[in-house]
Amino acid sequence: MIASLAGTVAAVGLDHLVIEVGGVGLLVHTTPATASATRPGTASRLATSLVVREDSLTLFGFDTAAERDLFELVQTVSGVGPRLALAMLAVHAPDPLRAAIAGSDVAALTKVPGIGKKGAERIVLELKDKVGAPAGAPGAVPSITPSLSTDQDQVVEALVGLGWNAKQAGDAVLAVTAEVDGLDVAETLRAALRRLGR
């Protein structure tokens, strides 16, 4: 998995960038907002998601890891592929998209081209309890708990990569580090995995 890339922007399109990394130009699909905020010749760093198909390898890029994680989460819903997931983030910023899903706002979701009423209802049904509240909302669940240290963040990211949501992972890491002080990253990860039951 290519989780991020950094390099010089060689070209900018309406919904993609070409970023030169080590002499290789990588085509990265982005939202129009990300593309329009980028200029050729400047340095860029993106969180990325690599979508592997039988006949293609397609790279999608995002300003933040939280945006990428939401892109990957919405694809767990049947019928939502990477293009539709990217369209969702093009129409709605991450926090409004989380708010629409968590608040069962079918009307907001159907503003995305390709999502009808039934599709929006399915997205709400499958993701309402997984998406978390938007940052800044009452009871918000940020993608990574802000009170975590860098080492704890690494453990949370590893747990999210293994299939837990950010809240479950953050709660487990905080509980483990509250019980035992001075654990390194590997020890914290093992203890959090035991707490989560794996």
Task: Give the number of domains.
Answer: 3
Return the CATH topology of the largest domain. DNA polymerase, domain 1
Radius of gyration: 18 Å
Strands, count: 5
**Strand order in space, largest sheet:** 1-2-3-5-4
Indicate the structural class: alpha+beta
Distance between the termini: 23 Å
InterPro entries: DNA_helicase_Holl-junc_RuvA_I, Hlx-hairpin-Hlx_DNA-bd_motif, NA-bd_OB-fold, RuvA, RuvA_2-like, RuvA_C, RuvA_C_sf
GO biological process, one term: DNA repair
Main location: cytoplasm
Region (Domain III): 153-198
Write the layout of secondary structure elements.
Blueprint: E1 4-12, E2 16-21, E3 24-29, H1 32-36, E4 43-53, E5 56-62, H2 65-74, H3 82-91, H4 94-102, H5 106-109, H6 117-127, H7 150-161, H8 166-179, H9 185-196
Helix pairs in contact: 2-3, 7-8, 7-9, 8-9
Question: If you had to describe this structure to a student in words, what would you say it looks like?
Answer:
The chain has 198 residues and is an alpha+beta fold. It has three domains: 59 residues, OB fold (Dihydrolipoamide Acetyltransferase, E2P); 63 residues, 5' to 3' exonuclease, C-terminal subdomain (DNA polymerase, domain 1, Orthogonal Bundle), CATH 1.10.150; 47 residues, Helicase, Ruva Protein, domain 3, CATH 1.10.8.10. A hairpin with a 2-residue loop joins strand 2 and strand 3. It is globular and about 50 Å long.
Keywords summarizing the entry:
198 residues; Helicase, Ruva Protein, domain 3; 5-stranded mixed barrel; 20% strand
